[in-house]
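Module 6 notes. Inverse folding takes a fixed backbone as the condition and produces residue identities as the prediction. Think of it as a translation problem where the source language is geometry and the target language is the twenty amino acids. Below is one complete input and output pair. Work through it position by position during the lab.
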């Protein structure tokens, strides 16, 4: 609810009210006059309205008698307006002696409106948990306190978890951030790292948390696939080294009768084994045969160039860097798009949003066209709409709420940029992506390390994420999957070494390329071939300038 408060002069007199200075009296809020106030526009949180409707006004207003006998409210305009809105018959009023000095009124209203402390997130979680222990349901707590049910459920879980409860009390964490510590409870190293981030660089917490989540998903998927293979009776082995001539891919072998081996016709037979890796963003199972000669098998004719020679230490370090940065990019993409969803959910967009959207739509024609050909699916998702058969969801949104036109246009523009970005963006950053990420940062988004590779000065670009990888990330051999039979002089090019994204097909080039083999979504590097050199729209660094009240149920706006 937004209300324009009016000065005391000109207000209709409801009649003289007899009060005693220094006492708290209960008066009809409609009989009160709101004194001139330094806050002229008031945005009242829905949660506060719900609280007053349920409990009435608990904290007395501060007021004094006017010259005509009317009671003028000095501190408590939000409480007064809300009480009128929900139909309270009376509100408590502490009546003080009148002081006509304008400077003193302004000072008192400023102090009352600014110098007050609301409950911390830790305080809220403790209160919710205590009410829960006292037998109140989440729904009842929500109704009584005007808080969201999901927040209460999360808060109770945090309060009941020793580590999360301690972290939210010690650091400036949100409920969702504290809940991440519960989610990663079985990974003490990740939790310890997140606690350090919360203390030293809290703005980076969401990025670190998402990377830890993604690493956990990879570990769990590896364990699941490992268990499935063992249940089938498959022997699980490490990936063979580049020069291991005794272990060969199953697909490169045949029987003495010339029958090619497949998983279906050779599974569980002598020497059959599998290698399980989390690589290229997915879990892969490769089938091999150990000691293939002993089992009467023969190699199929060579299908590629023999790859020889170990990787240098520098090449192995580069591979580790690529793997780590690719995974960091995936995590950053999740965090960035969640942030975009929140940005587009604001009632009021940044002041330069229209200019930024217009610049993208006018200059990034290739990207916008591809997004349009895809039905603007990402824009639809970022705006919280569902893709269904029939009329386009964005059209239906605009029909229902024409005032959302600016949000839809911005979503279409930002989504066109997002759709065109991939893991290859950090390896081949261009000016368009650099401008785009810098614009998000100007609006308040915190860039991750790998995103800062894109935004860095091209001549001073850093290496980004450290060359670290989990056990399930780093290829386990210098030349994985390349098995050269030195006796027969045959060998095959590894499918892992052959680039899938248009890199040179030559095996030696593929072996030395830092690429991780992940295929590009559209096979294109620069989507429209145009550099965004229009100077970029007003990059004023504004974040959320909508001036909306904090929807936390606190009566913290009623100077």
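Target side of the pair, the amino acids:
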């Amino acid at each position: 609810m937004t209300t324009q408060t009016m000065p005391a002069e000109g207000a209709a007199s409801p009649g003289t009210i007899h009060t005693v200075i220094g006492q708290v009296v209960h008066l009809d809020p409609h009989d009160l006059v709101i004194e001139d106030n330094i806050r002229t526009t008031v945005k009242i949180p829905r949660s506060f309205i719900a609280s007053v409707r349920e409990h009435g006004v608990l904290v007395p207003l501060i007021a004094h008698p006017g010259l005509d006998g009317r009671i003028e409210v000095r501190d408590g305009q939000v409480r007064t307006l809300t009480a009128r809105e929900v139909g309270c018959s009376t509100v408590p009023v502490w009546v003080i002696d009148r002081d006509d000095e304008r400077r003193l009124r302004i000072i008192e209203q400023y102090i009352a409106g600014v110098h007050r402390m609301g409950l911390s997130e830790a305080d809220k979680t403790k209160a919710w948990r205590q009410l829960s222990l006292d037998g109140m349901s989440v729904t009842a707590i929500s109704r009584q306190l005007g808080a969201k049910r999901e927040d209460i459920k999360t808060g109770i879980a945090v309060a009941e978890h020793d580590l999360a409860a301690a972290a939210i009390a010690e650091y400036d964490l949100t409920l969702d951030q504290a809940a991440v510590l519960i989610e990663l409870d079985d990974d003490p190293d990740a939790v310890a790292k997140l606690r350090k981030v919360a203390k030293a660089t809290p703005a980076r917490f969401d990025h670190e948390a998402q990377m830890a989540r993604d690493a956990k998903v990879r570990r769990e998927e590896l364990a699941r696939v490992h268990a499935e293979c063992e249940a089938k009776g498959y022997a699980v082995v490490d990936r063979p080294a580049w020069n291991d001539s005794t272990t060969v891919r199953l697909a490169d072998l045949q029987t003495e009768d010339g029958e090619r081996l497949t998983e279906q016709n050779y599974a569980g037979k002598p020497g059959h084994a599998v290698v399980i890796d989390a690589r290229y963003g997915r879990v892969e199972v490769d089938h091999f045969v150990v000691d293939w000669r002993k089992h009467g098998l023969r190699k199929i004719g060579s299908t590629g160039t023999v790859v020889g020679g170990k990787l240098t230490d520098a090449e192995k370090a580069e591979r580790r860097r690529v793997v780590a940065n690719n995974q960091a990019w995936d995590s950053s993409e999740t965090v960035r798009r969640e942030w975009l969803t929140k940005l587009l959910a604001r009632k009021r967009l940044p002041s330069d949003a229209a200019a930024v959207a217009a610049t993208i739509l006018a200059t990034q024609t290739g990207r916008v066209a591809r997004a349009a050909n895809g039905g603007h699916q990402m824009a639809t998702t970022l705006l919280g709409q569902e893709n269904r058969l029939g009329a386009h969801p964005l059209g239906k949104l605009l029909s229902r709420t024409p005032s959302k036109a600016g949000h839809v246009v911005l979503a279409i523009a930002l989504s066109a940029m997002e759709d065109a970005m991939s893991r290859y963006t950090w390896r081949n950053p261009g000016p368009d992506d650099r401008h785009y990420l810098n614009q998000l940062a100007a609006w308040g988004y915190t860039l991750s390390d790998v995103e800062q590779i894109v935004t860095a000065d091209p001549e001073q670009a850093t290496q980004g994420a450290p060359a670290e990888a989990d056990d399930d990330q780093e290829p386990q051999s210098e030349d994985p999957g390349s098995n050269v039979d030195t006796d027969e002089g045959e060998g095959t090019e590894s499918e892992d070494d052959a680039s899938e994204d248009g890199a040179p097909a030559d095996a030696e080039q593929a072996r030395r390329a830092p690429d991780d083999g992940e295929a590009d979504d559209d096979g294109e590097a620069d989507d429209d071939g145009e550099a965004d050199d229009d100077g970029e729209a007003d990059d004023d660094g504004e974040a959320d300038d909508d001036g909306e009240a904090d929807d936390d149920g606190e009566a913290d706006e009623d100077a």
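Reference fact for the lab report: The longest strand covers residues 282-290.
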